[in-house]
Each structure stands twice: as C-alpha cells, then as structure tokens.
Amino acid sequence: MLILFDIDGTLLRSGGAGPRSMGIAMQQLHPPRHEGDCVDMKKLDTAGWLDPLIWRALVDQRGLEATDEGHDAFRETYGAILAEIIEAENPVYALPGAAEAVDWVHEHPNLEAALLTGNYPETGRLKVKAAGLDPDLFRFGVWGSEADRRRGLPPIAIDRAISMFGRSIDPHETVIIGDTPADVDCAHANGCRVIAVATGRFEMEDLRPHEPDVLLPDLADLSRFQEAVTEVLAAGPFEPRD
C-alpha cells in the first residue's frame, strides 16, 4: 500500500524561500522595463500548485511569451537561487512529527513511502535534505514537472509503484498526505484516500469543507497518524469525485 507525502506545508516549511527564489529568478531573467514592471508573488495564491504552473503565471503577469527555453532557464535559475538562500539562511525545517511519520511508514512491512509534490525534483529533494529528512526513506517521487495539473500526479505514482514493486495497487490503497484543498481534490478525483493536515496555510476549518477522509491538526501525534492510515486503508474503494 502506498503512502504519498506532499512536501511544502506537510513535511516541512521553508520560510517563503521558494516563492522568493522564484521572484528573484524572474527578475534576473527578465529585468523590469519600467517602474512597476516587477513580479509580485503576493498576487498569486500558489498553494497546491505545480511549479511549472507558477512559472507560467509569472510569465503571464509580466506579459511575456511562455516558451520551453524560457521555462528551462527559469527552472535552472530558480534552483540555483534557492540553493544559495538555503545555504546562506538555513530557513528550512521539518514540521513536528514529520520525520517520525515517514520513519514509521518506511519501517512498516505493508506500506511504501513516496513523495507527491508540485516541486521540481531538484528543488524538492533540496528542501527535503535541508529539513534533515532522509530522502532515501522515500522509494520514489512524483514531481510537478510530470503532469499539467495536480490531478494528473496520483496515476503516475500508482503506475510507478506497480512497476517498481511488481504488484497491483488499487487507488483506494493509496493515501495522500497533504495540507491544501488541492491535495484533497487530487486524491478523491483519482479514487485515492487522503489525510489532510493543518500545518500549512490552511486551518482545520478551511480544510474541513473539502471532506478529507481524515483531518489532523498536524503529524505530531504519531499514534493518531498511525490510526488514521489504518482507518483510511480499511475504508475500501469509492467512486472518484469530480
């Protein structure tokens, strides 16, 4: 059975280093032409977004053409700037209970831990390492650069797990752990279970109307997390929700 952890706001926080690095990257690649022609990350509600979609929104904000070459340049520049900020400021930290939750899944004989995130692979791994989490505890990652929307990530994860483990995995045997409504949506749209945690920007009352299978304040209580995983995996299949 497959447990897919989101990164930002679920396993760790980075003090806004990611969005700040994206803004700096855009300014470096596309210097402002006049006063006011600057990237404004505050105008974008990027919670649960895929990194390539954030780039496209920034391009649109500046009135620029979106090209593959431009995206490649942004991705490389953003990654370099983020690495510099993390090295200089050490802003990334693991959220309470995150390491213990991942360790428990990794050690469980019937569970497999993996990542499902909107991050690019290189920046996602960078954040995980900076938070002091062992990347080797995750069997694989599914990244924001692999689909055109978040709903497209869980099928990739399931197919990857089937190929890697050599056995079938049904959607309801897959649990997504995330902190945004987008995590709940991408899980239920694909017939997967979801445990939402209020450790990111969304509070309990914000997440509850989206009807996650289990809603937790955080991952700090390992026994409650273990119960939640057992509970949702025992619930069985259901019809995907639009």
General description of the model:
It is a single chain. The protein has a six-stranded parallel beta sheet, sandwiched between helices. Helix 1 (17-29) crosses helix 3 (68-89) and helix 3 (68-89) runs parallel beside helix 5. The chain folds into two domains: 2-13 and 93-234, HAD superfamily/HAD-like (Rossmann fold), CATH 3.40.50.1000; 17-89, DNA polymerase, domain 1. The chain has helices at residues 17-29, 51-62, 68-89, 98-107, 121-130, 153-165, 181-188, 204-207, 222-234; strands at residues 2-5, 12-13, 93-94, 112-116, 141-142, 174-178, 193-197, 214-216. It starts with a strand and ends in an 8-residue tail after the last helix. The mean pLDDT is 92. 43% of the residues lie in helices and 12% in strands. The protein is of the alpha/beta class and 242 residues long.
Order of helices and strands: EEHHHEHEHEHEHEHEH
Radius of gyration: 18 Å
CATH superfamily annotation of the largest domain: HAD superfamily/HAD-like
Number of domains: 2
* CATH topology assignment of the largest domain: Rossmann fold
The shape is: globular
User: Which parts are unreliable, with pLDDT below 50 for 5 consecutive residues or more?
Assistant: none
Beta-strand percent range: 5-15%
Terminal-residue CA separation:
24 Å
Strands in their spatial order, largest beta sheet: 5-4-1-6-7-8
Helix content: 40-55%
Average pLDDT, rounded to a whole number, is 92
- How many helices? The count is 9
Oligomerization category of the chains in this entry:
single chain
Quick one: biggest sheet? 6 strands, parallel
Global structural class: alpha/beta
Report the strand count: 8
CATH architecture of the largest domain: 3-Layer(aba) Sandwich
What is the C-level CATH assignment of the largest domain?
Answer: Alpha Beta
